[in-house]
Amino acid sequence: MAPGPEVAGIDIFVRVKPVPKPSPRLGIDNSENKVEFNIPRNEAAGLVNNQREHFEFRFNGILQADAKQDEVFERVARPVVMGAMEGYNGTIFAYGQTGSGKTFTITGGPERYVDRGIIPRSISAIFSEISKRHDYQYSVHISYLEIYNNEGYDLLDAEREIKALEDLQQVHVGEGEDGTVSYRNLSMYRANNEEEALNLLFLGDTNRTISETPMNQASSRSHCIFTIHVEARKTGEDVVRRSKLNLVDLAGSERVSKTGVDGTTLREAKYINLSLHYLEQVIIALQEKPHIPYRNSMMTMALKDSLGGNCRTVMVATINSAQDQLDESISTCRFAQRVAMVRNTVLLNEELDPSLIIRRLKQELRDLKEEVKMLRGEEEERGPLTPDELVRLQGQVETYVADNSPEASLNLGGSMMMIRAVFEVFKRLLRTGGFKMAGSGGEGGGGGGDSAGLQDQVRKLKLQVAQRDNEIGILVSMLKRRE
Q: Quick check: 97 pLDDT over 90?
């Protein structure tokens, strides 16, 4: 039975960017996860000056300037990633001014392997965990969305290299029947291993829109959402778990009056600041108003599930400790504290898979019909097994013998011809040393009990067959109605 809904807050971690000359007015207390700013009053403002001098913020954790990428992943991301493996939605997003280290935190640095960010480390952790869970069957799919000037684009679109941005097909975001976020024109690719997933990440990062600004030589000019969709089925069960892990790199806020940008960069900055303003409106509305303005921008709509929805969410607030950037750092910390007040309702995404149930019931039906044939002593109306059938049968036997799983099975149906042939294969393999057995097994005579007992067993099997037929019919009709 799936656990009930869990109301959880958004965890906030602050990461301090290393700079050559950090300001002494920024204080960090790791024991209490506290950040303090001490800003002296501006004497030029005159005698009547109500400027605030002391700011204090508390968070779930602080990542100091010397924090390594592996520490960031273990503290911030691993619990969310492991939750996604269990069927819980997760989101990790970075927020801060431009040039404060958001992209480095989420994606990582391109030069050294140890500088890998949260996305590549999450991919590695997911496939490492899949290799350990032998009782589950997993499928992993990847999508990569870019929101540039409030318009969505597919970063994995094969036509990005040959078409101009304005000629590409746009991605549209909407709501599904259950209220969750859905996309149109956003591709999703299956990743069978870590290498394939990393190749998709590299392709998407190559297609991102970046430009040089006074604050950052390679500034991200768009919001990007890298989503890992995980589907898990436990062997022998009809339950499927579906979860998604959103790893979000938000473009950085910037004060145009301070950076002095113009032209295309100025237009990009306006869209970035406007979308972040709408994000702040959503955060405030989640605490105060019945109506949440998710539809004001594409970015807030894309984060609808992550903010106030069914999701475990973690935010990394990146701040710059340089003296001339303290105002922006205080603004980032204020926003982070508002986000910390948002509450999400987290649910286990688990449901019965009708296709699995139908497949299992059909197999049971075939097995029961074949068992009825055996009990009646009916023989097949066909000739002897062909050489190809014998070779295939020997391969099935060898696979069955080599499989140490307790669920290993050798399904021969109800054909006495096949059963006799399998005994011949076992005998031949044993004599030729094809495999070794701990002891010899008897041929199991089957003994001929009384006919009344056999007839009763046949009647019970027929009844089971009829019941399975009815169950399959009901499930098929349910699927047709749903379609």
A: no
- First CA to last CA distance, the chain: 27
Give the rounded percent of residues in the chain with a pLDDT score beyond 90.
37
Give the pLDDT confidence score for residue 483 in this predicted structure. 61
**What DSSP line would sit under 230-242, residue for residue?**
EEEEETT-SEEEE
Rounded to whole angstroms, how far apart are CA atoms 257 and 48? 26
pLDDT per residue over 263-292, tens digit each?
Answer: 677 777 788 888 888 998 999 898 877 788
Residue among 16, 22, 19, 50 nearest 34 (CA): 16
List, as own/partner pairs, every contact residues 420-427 make where C-beta atoms lie below 8 angstroms and the sequence separation is at least 24, other chains included.
Answer: 421/385, 421/390, 421/393, 422/393, 422/397, 425/390, 425/393, 425/394, 425/397, 426/397
More confident: 264 or 258: 264
- What pLDDT shows up at residue 335? 92
d(CA 239, CA 71): 35
Q: What are phi and psi of 371, to 5 degrees?
A: -70, -35
Q: Which of 292, 230, 256, 321 is nearest to 23 (CA)?
A: 321
Contact between residue 113 and residue 260 where contact means Cβ atoms under 8 Å apart: no
* 27 and 38 Cβ atoms separated by less than 8 Å: yes
Which amino acid would we find at residue 198?
A: L
The answer to whether residues 165 and 209 touch, using CB atoms and an 8 Å cutoff, is: yes
Q: What is the pLDDT of residue 441?
A: 43
Cα 422 to chain center, whole Å? Answer: 44
Reduced to 3 states, what is the DSSP secondary structure of residue 249?
A: strand
CA dist 209 and 105 (Å) reads: 18
Beta strand 312-320 with 11-17 is parallel
> How does DSSP assign 179-237, residue by residue?
S-EEEES---EE-SSHHHHHHHHHHHHHT--EEEETTEEEEE-SEEEEEEEEEEEETT-
Count of CB atoms within 10 A of residue 58's CB?
Answer: 15
**Mean pLDDT score of the chain:** 82
